[in-house]
Amino acid sequence: MKGKISLDLTEGSWTASGGLTFTKASDGRTLRFTGAHGDLAQRSMLVDATVGDEATLPVDLSTYELDMTKITVTMPSVNSPGSVEGRPFSTTLKPDGAAVFSRAFGTSPVPTGSSLATLAGRVDVVPGLG
To answer: H or E element: which one contains 106?
Structure first.
């Protein structure tokens, strides 16, 4: 994951590589998410979505609230990078996210405004140079 963030997590953005593919067992239809990126100020997560063999399109997938009691920030030092660690928090499906699930599979796994997934993570933070 790469990006620039404020250590109070009120601004900045991030980009993650990799992807995730959902496949419907009954007919093999697929939905692939790649290139996740987020905006900390708006608490939004966008992905590049590919339904089957269609062209990849950006989708405003979900939003989230951060409970700062579930966030640990360790400042960088000369000997080690700092880190931001988030204990599990829920994401909420946005209308565009529900629409891409429906286009791929005929329905969304959860209604718009409902919890889509629970996430947790840790990233190393190095101070910017210059």
So the answer is: none
